[in-house]
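Notebook B, p. 112. Complex prediction, attempt 2.
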Amino acid sequence: MEVLDGSPNHAVSRYVEWLITVVVLFNCSAVILDSIPEVHADYKDFFHELEFWSVMFFTLEYVLRVWSLGAKFSKEEGGAWRGRRGYMFSPFGLIDFFATMPFYMHVFFPSLDLRILRVLRLLRILKLSKYNTALQDLFAAVHSERRAFGSAAFLLLIVTIVSASLMHFAEGHEQPEAFGSIPHAIYWSIVTITSGYGNVEPVTKAGEVIALLTGFLGVCMAAIMTGIVASAFSNQMSRKKAAFQSQLRKVFEDGVVSDAEKDSLKRLQSQYRLSDAQVQAMMDEMNPNKKD
Amino acid sequence: MSATSLSTYARLQKRTYEILDGSVADRSSRVCEIFIALLVVANVVSIILESVHSLHEAFEYEFHIFDTFSVVVFSIEYVLRVWSYGAKYTHAAQEKGSAWKGRKEYLFSVFGLVDFFSTVPFYLQLLFPGADLRVLRMFRLLRIFKLSRYNSAMEDMFEAIKSERDSFSSALFLLLISCLLFSSLIYIIEGHDQPEVFRSIPAAMHWFILTIIAGWGNVDPVTYLGTVLVVVTQILAIALAAILTGVVATAYTAQVQRRESLYEMEVREVLADGVVTEEEQLKLKALQAKFGMSNEQVEAIALQVQAEKAAKDAS
């Protein structure tokens, strides 16, 4: 379990990580290349072989994971199946499952649409996200600001509906093919908000003003979204720093830094991905406090 | 004033106020909130669908019934709100005219005006059947803003932006100045060569704003000087977007930090006497909910305050 989960940083688990990453990347390039008709015609057999062996490989990985994650919790904590269930229904578990299963589906039901199976094969690239902690940071940051995102989305919705309706009222008679109904106009206003330019030019003066305002609000919406993400990131960083600092304080409390404490600090540092310089600065800040 | 001395009328008024205002978060006020929000959403959807010609013809009667129904509901809501907001300042109920203080406040607030103008057009239509339908529909669209009453995150956003209004106005000022300058310049440079596009300074302003928003203003310059001007405008557009983004980001970060320090102060106060009573715990919980802070954030703050306190006690 430790090898696959990668929680303690062993050399073996590092190798396994690398191996899986390489196979996944190789697979995705194969799927993309396979979609070019000429390449497909020339290397059909090779792609078939590759697909077969990588499915075998991923199946082995999946089975090993399910089997070994039984060791995650001891008997008292819920037994072997708790860890297994936890994995199987986690996003990663589902990805592992759905990225591998299409091959078997194809074997059992040969008449299925091949294109859907290919798309499902591309799911394999998501397996890489397991090894990307920065991605998890990103999700955590966005999650912590989800209220702000929600209100930004609400604002976007209001801007879209209001601008589309106003445009419909202003230009519905002049350009019925583009603004004949509000749903039509909604398409126009989304295009205007995202790109600044609508797919149709307004012909009335009122329409022109509405178009300019909509475009400008689009720029503002982009600014708001970007601003929220930026602030979410910087807040997350300062939160991590604070957590690390309180841990440091605890370590320094008794005046001695044992090896075990050093280890746990190191692990925390790599988990929070703080640089050595940052940690050093925090320690320096802490030490004079300790002396007096 | 004790509850017993209130008449049934006053009690009813107060209760209605509590339900409609949502300040007391109990079940009936939540149900009322959800009902109105759903009705507003249904209204907006129906306005959108009604504009599709074929749907309008097929379901004209149903649309009409639904609109009448929602106008009746919104009118009742409006009347109840005006009536019950008289109970907002109960402590001064003895004084004459104090009931109208809360009412006036509501009537002229943004929400009050939205409530009024999103409902009244229907009655106008009854009185003057010849009025332009498009204008009436536009007013009906105002109903969508009734929703913003229930979105507290939106208030946060406006609050954050308001606290940085100096930066925003300077960004807008920059935009205005460059708009005047660049559109006059392009009018002077290209006005002769492309009279159909840059025939006047206002027309050139239209071009400028398009360039700022979309990066391309519908026309290509024909002179060398004009090309330089267009390129500079486009770079300015990028800079302006960056400035706006930066200001929003700072505003948000500052708001979160302000809240964290407010919360920290509260925690410090609670911990000052060494005991945490149930009441204090509830207060902290309410503050956490109001600021939308996560549990881990709160824990980190509490830990820090505790550690500081321990260090102080030791020294």
